[in-house]
Specification:
Number of domains: 2
Strand content: 25-35%
CATH topology of the largest domain: Surface presentation of antigens (SPOA)
Structural class: alpha+beta
Order of helices and strands: HHEHEEEH
CATH class of the largest domain: Mainly Beta
Number of helices: 4
Largest sheet: 4 strands, antiparallel
Shape: elongated
CATH architecture of the largest domain: Roll
Strand order of the largest sheet: 1-2-3-4
Number of strands: 4
Length: about 100
């Protein structure tokens, strides 16, 4: 951390302190995943799965998918195609206060 940033923190400059904290976390890698649905299987059923098997999920077709960061739902959305790759269009973002409650 540079000397001016350290001085701003020690003087209690809230704006500068926030900027330094934000700068520190911007390069932290997080895992982002999209959850289509879930299913509970017994091990015997899991062992019977093979190519062509179908696992029924707990979601109804057309229902929004969960966007998770480090296993915490932060948004919901729908699948889109972007240059022949899958993407997700966010249709609802979870309130930041609610996200913190689930950490």
């Amino acid at each position: 951390m540079n000397e001016s940033a350290t001085n701003n923190i020690s003087k209690g400059d809230g704006g500068a302190e926030s900027a330094v904290q934000l700068e520190l976390i911007q390069n932290v890698a997080v895992s982002v995943s999209v959850e289509v649905g879930r299913s509970l299987l017994r091990i015997r059923d899991l062992l019977r799965l093979g190519q062509g098997s179908v696992v029924e999920l707990d979601r109804v077709a057309g229902e929004p998918l969960d966007v998770c960061v480090n296993n915490t739902v932060i948004a919901r959305g729908e699948v889109v195609l972007v240059n022949e790759r899958y993407g997700i269009r966010l249709t609802q973002v979870v309130d930041p206060e609610d996200r913190v409650k689930h950490l």
